[in-house]
Structure formats: structure tokens, C-alpha cells
Amino acid sequence: MVCLNCKTEFESGKHCPNCKSMDIANFTKKRIIYKDNSYTRREWYINLSSYVKFSKDGIILKKTRDYIDYSYLHQIFEENCKKYTFLGLILPSIVFFVLALTNLLAGLLMRETEYFVIDGTLQNIEVFLYFISGLYFVFFLTISYLWIIKKQKCYIAMSKGQIRYIHITKEKYLNMISIFNDFESKSKKE
Fold it and tell me: N or C, fewer C-beta in 10 Å, the chain?
């Protein structure tokens, strides 16, 4: 069990032994139990990311009156960005690249060998495979441009009542991290 207020780990109880807070999360292998609700890792990321709103004054926790330690929110936000940048940007670009190569190779191999073609001519199928390969390659280039050149990141959160991947630029990401760091340093001083 971990207290989300002071990040103290302890074995059992309904209150934190250090700060007497009731904001306690029990982490198991696949589930997180918080206030008698069970969450998966994805639901936990969505739950905590939906609470965070960034402003010039700092971090505002929406939809809750619970106090959750800023360093813990920072850690969860970093994990969320890392995981869903991979799932939302890097993995799709790799998949589109592999699909483009597969269709290109299938079109090239079709020239040299004769297959039994049920519907259409060999030339039509070859042109279609080249077209699909080109289309996948354009998708690959577009998504790769976002995460390689523009250094865009994304995280998953609840936005306007729906679960969404929220894409942020490098500048906005660094601004969010600096706000987290400012708030962590302010809370340590107090």
C-alpha cells in the first residue's frame, strides 16, 4: 500500500501512519485499488491524468478534492507519456513501415512468379499493391515526422467525456514538466 499524499509505503491499514491520510492505493500485479474502486493501469493513468489541469498558477486537480502528491502525479504523467507515445506514435509508424515493405515486396515478387489469379489480371493486382504500399509509406512518413522531427508526445486522458490520446508538442511537454518541478520544489519548501 502507498499513501498518495506523502508516498509512504506500508503493509496494511486504512490510514497512512505518517500523515494520517486516507488517500491510499493498493498496487497488485494487474490492478490498483483506490477508495474501494479497482482500476487497471490504463484506467489509473486516465483517472489521474484527467485530474491534472495546467495553468500559469500551476497544477490544478480537477474533479476531486483529494490531495495527491505532485511528485507522484509527475511520475504517473511521465509513465503515461512514455507508454502512450510508444503506443500512439512509434508503434503505428513501425507497423505502417512494415506494411509498406510487405506490399512492395509482394508486388515485386509477383512479377517474377506466376500465381493463380482468381479475379483481375496480374498487372492490376501489382498496381494495387504498389498503390497500397505507397499509401502506407505516406502514413509512415507522416507519423514519423510527428515523433522524430517535431518530438511530439501523447498521453491518454479523459477529455470532454471520452478517452482520448492527447498530442502535445515538445515545448508544451517541457512546460508541463517545468510546472511539475516548480510545484514539487514549492511543496518541499513548505
Answer: C
167 in Cβ contact with 154 (< 8 Å) = yes
Which cell numbers in the block locate residue 32?
A: 490498483
Distances in Å between the Cα of 189 and the Cα atoms of 24, 95, 185 are: 24, 47, 6
Q: Residue 154 contacts by C-beta under 8 Å, 6 or more apart in sequence?
A: 81, 84, 85, 88, 89, 165, 166, 167, 168
pLDDT per residue over 45-63, tens digit each?
887 776 666 665 556 666 6
Give CA torsion, residues 131, 134, 135, 137, to 10 deg.
160
Nearest to 173 by CA among 74, 42, 90: 74
Backbone angles phi, psi at 14, to 5 degrees: -100, -10
Strand 52-55 to 58-61 pairing? antiparallel
Q: Distance (Å, rounded) from C-alpha 44 to C-alpha 26?
A: 12
